[in-house]
Amino acid sequence: GRGVTNLPAWLIKRQQEEQKLKSQQPPSPPPPPTNPDQYDDASNDLTSQQQQQSTLQTLLSKATNRTMLLTNMVGPNEVDDELKEEVKEECEEKCGPVDGVRIHVKEGVVQVYVIFQQMIHAKEAAKLFDGRTFGDRVISARLM
């Protein structure tokens, strides 16, 4: 291991699955690096990004006091399709029902918004996740 303590259950499961897949498959070339600030077709991607930001703001305004923001959880190149579901599973397992998880990358900073069904669950989660070690990072968690 990396000497990391207090890893969330979903991360341990993910690491075990990745190790299992690596042992079953020949190594594949690494994916090309992605830079969220670069756009192939600037007008389309920019419009999409603006729509996503608008949708995110609308959802958050409806979920005030039930939303937790996680930062410093992963870097922009570590965001994948499974992250959203893994965060949701971990939050529901430890704190309570989750209405949704939104991941937003802006200027190289990954923001993970977790919208709980009840404010008490969001408060519990913020206490649980704030200062928690994830990989080599210390997570910052706060209520919105």
Task: Describe it.
Helix 1 packs antiparallel against helix 3 (83-94). With 144 residues, the protein is of the alpha+beta class. A hairpin with a 2-residue loop joins strand 2 and strand 3 (109-116). The strands form 2 sheets. The chain has a 4-stranded antiparallel beta sheet, sandwiched between helices. The longest helix is centred in the middle third of the chain and has 21 residues, at 42-62. It is 42% helix and 21% strand. The protein is built from 4 helices and 6 strands.
Summarize the structure.
This protein is of the alpha+beta class and 144 residues long. The chain contains four helices and six strands; from the N terminus they run ααβαββαβββ.
